[in-house]
Amino acid sequence: MHDRGDGVKPVGESRRLVAALRQERPDLRVYYTETDIFRQVIPDADTAWIPRLKGACQLSRHMYHIIRVAQ
Fold first, then answer.
1. For residues 64 and 71, what is the distance between their CA atoms, to the nearest angstrom?
2. Can you tell which superkingdom this protein's organism belongs to (predicted)?
3. Residue 37 and which of 23, 48, 55, 62 are 20 to 30 A apart at CA?
């Protein structure tokens, strides 16, 4: 999971990591989610409610996959 607005680590780093992992280990399920609702892991209060709702749904779906794998 990566926020497109991350000023510390560019989102392209995560995209390249996911691409490399999928290429090297096609047998693994890789779940990658990009959002626009965080700025350095803090919810961005300036985001309008529709993008925030979309981001919340993305976060929920991503967390579902993590919990499912952990079980």
1. 11
2. Eukaryota
3. 23
